[in-house]
Amino acid sequence: QVQLVESGGGLVQAGGSLRLSCAASASIIGIYTMGWYRQAPGKQRELVASITSGGSTNYADSVKGRFTISRDNAKNTVYLQMNSLKPEDTAVYSCRLTMRLDYWGQGTQVTVSS
To answer: pLDDT digit string (tens) for 54-65?
Structure first.
């Protein structure tokens, strides 16, 4: 079974940057999708960005041009580089691995102050 651990969240001023990491406990082999989701208080959880085993990426319209998802297969880690952060980006960000089974990390808090 795979465990996912997120890190890199914190408090940042509007316009600043953060890099989130999602480290998996084992190598991910085969067809998969890894994604970053976020949920703000009073709002539905939404997909922020995803990357497939083939390297295809997708982004929510609200973060296009500001966020970049990437991976380091040797480190079993997926990253989310967040630039030009806005207060509306404030949320708990969670990592998800979809393959034969579905795995979620515990989430990391991102707070963007105005």
So the answer is: 999 999 999 999
